[in-house]
Write a structure and sequence with these properties.
By secondary structure, the protein is an alpha+beta fold. It folds into three domains: 108 residues, Acyl-CoA dehydrogenase/oxidase, N-terminal domain (Butyryl-Coa Dehydrogenase, subunit A, domain 1); 113 residues, Beta Barrel (Butyryl-CoA Dehydrogenase, subunit A, domain 2); 145 residues, Up-down Bundle (Butyryl-CoA Dehydrogenase, subunit A, domain 3), CATH 1.20.140. The chain contains eleven helices and ten strands. The strands form three sheets. The protein has a four-stranded mixed sheet with strand order 1-4-5-8. A four-stranded antiparallel sheet has the order 2-3-7-6, with no helix packed on it. It has a two-stranded antiparallel sheet with strand order 9-10. The two termini are 38 Å apart.
């Protein structure tokens, strides 16, 4: 087993670092302060083709795997940025690539790869369903050559910064089905022509996440924008969940490395009582512990990504990577904040911003409790606990 990155992967890592140096801490600090979308950063990544990484070359992309995509997002977070602002374009591609028609791929993928269209929104979560996705109530009713959609979504990010959105809706009522995972369908929604049919209410959150509540009032979607077969949408989005978990794990690993590097540097420079605070085991041991756990999570991340790229089953590995990486990053965040003391709460040190951003990864896009429930039931064979 080779644990070394390929030359291409090492080059990707260095290229992303080079791009990120153009957007230093001060850039992200200001974007966060103003609650703005980092448009110039996302545009730069798009122009260089990095957000088209998972798109096959025949559709204008670079045809890279989830392994390379994860390296891109990891380096953004490790450099002090927040890859959440653009990660959806990586994992939503899976649903379209695997289950979309050839006509849909030809219509959308080249324009997404070229930056003419942006697909950064994924509409799944609803206020009354939460993590119980089969309980969503947004309905899409077919009328002739169109589906008419009514309902609402919550915590749907980057709608105002996207041209397209993948939307999960019920096409058969929940009570009419024995298998509740049936009757859900995925649609490509062109947001540019949806004015008056989608009400977007931005949500003010702890983090600068560009998240919204959505209300659908008679939104019409052409039949040709249905992905795959009607009623099979739940299966389609599950395919994208493994990619999502791997990419989120990579972001958490990037955060964890940022925290441990900053903490170790500060601990070596900050002198109190006549010596560096890092000379104290109470300071250095938590940093070292977090570092070790991040490195362990990284191995599981690459195991999951490798299996994904080989088209092997990787549900357990993808979920474990997300669990271990997000918890290791949160441990590193706490160690970094403690190391900095009062300065950790100062905006100019960036610790408090990254602290807020990495906390999200233990909860979204899937709660770590649900990851544990999945492992207990589907890997270890224990009874369902929820």
């Amino acid at each position: 087993m080779d644990f070394n990155l390929t030359q291409e992967q090492l080059q990707i890592r260095e290229e992303i670092r080079r791009v990120c140096r153009e957007f230093p801490d001060a850039y992200w600090r200001e974007v966060d302060r103003k609650r703005e979308y980092p448009e110039s950063f996302v545009r730069k990544l798009t122009e260089l083709g990095w957000l088209a990484a998972p798109i096959p070359e025949e559709y204008g992309g670079t045809g890279l795997g989830i392994t390379e995509a994860s390296i891109i997002l990891e380096e953004i977070n490790r450099s002090g940025g927040n890859a959440t602002v653009c990660h959806a374009q990586m994992y939503t591609m899976g649903t379209l690539l695997k289950h979309g028609s050839e006509e849909q791929k030809k219509r959308y993928l080249p324009k997404i790869a070229a930056g003419e269209l942006r697909l950064q929104a994924f509409g799944v979560t609803e206020p009354n369903a939460g993590s119980e996705t089969t309980r969503i109530q947004t309905m899409a009713v077919r009328r002739g050559d169109r589906y008419v959609i009514h309902g609402q979504k919550i915590f749907i990010s980057r709608v105002l910064q996207s041209d397209l959105m993948l939307l999960l809706a019920r096409t058969t009522p929940y009570d009419e089905l024995e298998d509740k995972t049936q009757g859900l369908s995925v649609f490509i929604v062109d947001l540019r022509g949806a004015e008056g049919k989608i009400e977007v209410k931005p949500l003010d959150l702890m983090i600068n996440h560009h998240t919204n509540a959505l209300f659908f009032d008679g939104l019409e979607v052409p039949v040709e924008n249905l992905i795959g077969k009607e009623g099979m949408g739940f299966r389609y989005i599950i395919d994208g969940w493994n990619a999502e978990r791997i990419l989120v794990a990579a972001q958490a690993i990037g955060d964890g490395r940022w925290f441990t590097e900053r903490a170790a540097k500060y601990a070596g420079e900050r002198v109190v009582f006549g010596r560096p605070i890092g000379a104290n085991q109470g300071i250095q041991f938590p940093i070292a512990q977090a570092y070790a756990r991040i490195e362990a999570a990284d191995l599981v991340r690459f195991q999951a990504a490798t299996k994904f790229d080989r088209k092997e089953r990787c549900g357990a590995e993808a979920n474990m990577a997300k669990l271990l990486a997000s918890e290791a990053a949160w441990e590193a965040a706490n160690a970094c904040l403690t190391t900095h003391g009062g300065y950790g709460f100062a905006v100019d040190y960036d610790v408090e911003r990254k602290f807020r951003e990495t906390r999200l990864l233990t909860i979204a896009p899937v709660s770590n409790n649900l990851v544990l429930a999945y492992l207990a039931q589907h890997v270890l064979g224990m009874p369902k606990s929820y």
